[in-house]
3-oxoacyl-[acyl-carrier-protein] reductase
Amino acid sequence: MTRSVLITGGNRGIGLAIAHELKSSGDAVAVTYRSGEPPEDLFGVRCDITSAEDVDAAFGKVEAEQGPVEVLVANAGITRDNLLALMSEEEFTSVVDTNLTGAYRVSKRAVRGMMRKRRGRIILVSSVVGLLGSGGQTNYAASKAGLVGFARSLARELGSRNITVNVVAPGFVDTDMTAALGEDRQAEIKKQIPLGRIAEPTEIAKAVRFLAGDDAAYITGAVIPVDGGLGMGH
């Protein structure tokens, strides 16, 4: 059965890998993107998830193209790293507004159709940083930790409607964001990871595919770490 899937921030990195993974399993996949160009092989909708109006319009376009969203992957996120003593209020609130409140906006819009159908999957992309902490990232860590409480509460609200809500918490992944760290910093990071390497985006995508599939029908409110062991114990 072909399902209607929407992935926020799906035009690069982890989001794009998730989009290709779910498309390869036979789903109709749409992605939102804020800047740049949409992937050629996917239905792309420009959307700023800090705007409720943008979110509503994007969902309308996706619904018209491929039907009500049955699988939502809230992946879009930003970083604005700084030490707390130097961090502006705007640096803090902009990250929370995108990463956490953005997930609220898209989830709220998605659950309408899911509740009517009495089925659905919501998967939130958090981070090992939200569980482990990271100096210079109080804003990012707070937003990503917030997704866990949000998901678990929503899982309790929607369970009776056969809608699951889960979290994937990636560790360090080979994307533009980590490439910008430089080789020395990457070497330091690898020393902290029990598996001794940085993940490929497809490894995160396969965990999302599992949670979106039939084999995960009895899993909800879970946090699945895909971090090479970096954050174990949390």
The chain has a mean pLDDT of 95. Strands lie at 4-7, 28-33, 43-46, 71-74, 120-125, 163-170, 223-226.
